[in-house]
Amino acid sequence: MSAYPATRLRRLRRTPGLRGLVRETHLHLDDFVMPLFVAPEPLPNPELPGLARHSLETLVPEVEELVRLGVGSVILFGIPEEKDEEATGAWEDDGIVQRALRELRPRFPELVLLTDVCLCEYTSHGHCGVVRDGEVANDESLDLLVRTAVSHVEAGADVVAPSDMMDGRVGAIREALPETPILAYSAKYASAFYGPFREAADSAPAFGDRRGYQMDPANVREALRECELDLAEGADAVMVKPALPYLDVIRAVRDRFDAPVGAYNVSGEYAMVKAAAAAGHLEERAAALESLAAIKRAGADLVISYWTKELAGWL
Ligand code: PBG
């Protein structure tokens, strides 16, 4: 590269048209997945609209609106009527997510329906697996996770996304569901940024924390091992979660693997910007677009984001 004054990088920044011509990263609605919470009763969330709860009745018009706006994919989370030790609400045939799928599937044949496969919203203790002697029992949890995934597919899910972080869960689900795409939450960190989700889903652990199964935020090589194992077990795509504090992990995963890479722009990332905007510290739309472009630039192919609905209006 020749130096200044022959080279002047500002020449291509002068107008919106020039900047558009040389832009390296673009946001397409096709790459975004809108999370939706389904519960027995609706619970609006005016400060964090992406984290509102829908009932089966309010879910359908919400999805109608999303589809009208051009959103092509949603991921469902359920809040059951009752929670128990065996997470019955996660895998029973008439669980809240299964019922939601049966409402949505025939009405929106082209919409991609993803489901989060985990037990934490359904267990009385809030852990992502079954608890035996005060510990989350890995292998015993696999059976319930598989039942959950199978019941979602029977009810109409297109893609299952296991987020529990038990070892071997992708392989176990793959064996039961040879035809179903699995988006594995492979590098899911024990993060402080899940707070608003746990309020919306009522899934904070009643004792202890999730560090015995979710990843240590300090590690990136381990994230590559998680992705490698999940792909070997039959995952179709891997995911890094959260997104913004882990852009280096997204990049490392992108560089190492050719499988599609997802990123989950989590509730705390969304809530921080909303709160800062409400306090007048920054402009939400600009901050959100910048954040989402950064996640794509880091190498994510698909992004789960609570901004998906708003993004549809902005694009
Ligand atoms: C569930 C699950 C969680 C999130 C997605 N799936 C919560 C957790 O692990 O505590 C968090 C998403 C967010 O914060 O937006 N197992």
Keywords:
315 residues; alpha/beta; TIM Barrel; nine-stranded parallel β-sheet; two-stranded antiparallel sheet; 11 strands; globular; binds ligand PBG
Cα-atom radius of gyration: 20 Å
Averaged pLDDT: 97
Largest sheet: 9 strands, parallel
* Spatial gap, N to C terminus: 35 Å
Strand content: 15-25%
Question: How is this structure best described in words?
Answer:
The protein has 315 residues and is an alpha/beta fold. It has one domain (26-314): Aldolase class I (TIM Barrel), CATH 3.20.20. It is built from twelve helices and eleven strands. It has helices at 16-21, 56-69, 88-91, 96-107, 138-155, 169-176, 195-201, 221-232, 247-256, 267-278, 284-297, 308-314; strands at 32-38, 53-54, 73-78, 112-117, 131-132, 135-136, 159-162, 183-188, 237-241, 261-265, 302-305. The strands form two sheets. Strands 1, 2, 3, 4, 7, 8, 9, 10 and 11 form a nine-stranded parallel sheet that branches. It binds ligand PBG. Ligand PBG binds at residues 116, 118, 120, 128, 163, 194, 197-198, 203, 266-267.
Write the layout of secondary structure elements.
Elements lengths: L15 H6 L10 E7 L14 E2 L1 H14 L3 E6 L9 H4 L4 H12 L4 E6 L13 E2 L2 E2 L1 H18 L3 E4 L6 H8 L6 E6 L6 H7 L19 H12 L4 E5 L5 H10 L4 E5 L1 H12 L5 H14 L4 E4 L2 H7 L1
Parallel strand pairs: 1-2, 1-3, 1-11, 3-4, 4-7, 8-9, 9-10, 10-11
Antiparallel strand pairs: 5-6
The structure holds ligand PBG.
Ligand PBG binds next to helix 7.
